[in-house]
Amino acid sequence: MGKKIEFFKTFVKDRDVASVIPTSPRCVKKVCTNIDFSKDFTLVEYGPGNGAFTHYLIENMSPNSRLILIEANQNFVSALKDSIDDPRVEIHNVLAGNVESVLSDELIGNVDYVLSGIPFSFLEWDRKIEVLQATKKILKDDGKFLAYQTSGHLKKPVMEVFGNFETDFEPLNIPPYFIYKIHKNGH
């Protein structure tokens, strides 16, 4: 219960936090069906918050996979650093639009997945485009951008940058989420 209370306090203080409560395990599993856990991969997660997705990813990814967490909120960064001790995981306190600044040169253009829970509805248009362009740049040619959002507001900027998307819906999460699957190369 303590983690939920801390999450709520952070939500109240930081308007860039997407939801009052962490994502449900059901929604986490549904989004993660788009990830091939049988292979080694590099995944960048934007806005891991309290780690609902992060801990699921760590439990299911291979020993040679890498998870790079991009979190703008210092309270969440501190909590993640306190709760994660895994050599496959890196934690960076930067904005998603600045992801390239913390990735090594060999990773830019070689990331398999980007997973995002950041609330794009709260971002100005230019910042949405900046984050999406940075995402496209770091993904490998057959990479996927996976996002879970509270509305369909991401469709227009995603079409401008990527030119494609598929959506699913998870009505049993609070709040209900649209789940986006976007391919770097538009297929």
Name the descriptors.
alpha/beta; 187 residues; Rossmann fold
How does this model look, in words?
- It holds the Pfam family Methyltransf_11.
- With 187 residues, the protein is of the alpha/beta class.
- Helices cover 32% and strands 23% of the residues.
- The chain is globular and about 40 Å long.
- The protein has six helices and seven strands.
Q: What does this entry show, briefly?
A:
Helices cover 32% and strands 23% of the residues.
The largest β sheet comes out as: 7 strands, mixed
Number of helices: 6
Q: Which bin fits the share of residues in helices? A: 25-40%
Q: What is the third-level CATH name, the topology? A: Rossmann fold
H/E topology pattern: HHEHEHEEHEHEE
- CATH class wording: Alpha Beta
The end-to-end span amounts to 42 Å
Low-confidence parts: 1-20
> In total, how many domains does the architecture comprise?
1
Structure summary, number of beta strands: 7
The backbone outline, from C-alpha atoms, is globular
Helices and strands in order:
Layout: H1 2-13, H2 25-32, E1 42-46, H3 52-60, E2 66-70, H4 74-83, E3 89-92, E4 111-116, H5 125-138, E5 139-149, H6 155-161, E6 166-170, E7 177-183
Parallel strand pairs: 1-2, 1-4, 2-3, 4-5
Antiparallel strand pairs: 5-7, 6-7
Helix pairs in contact: 2-3, 5-6
Pfam families: Methyltransf_11
InterPro entries: Methyltransf_11, SAM-dependent_MTases_sf
GO molecular function, one term: RNA binding
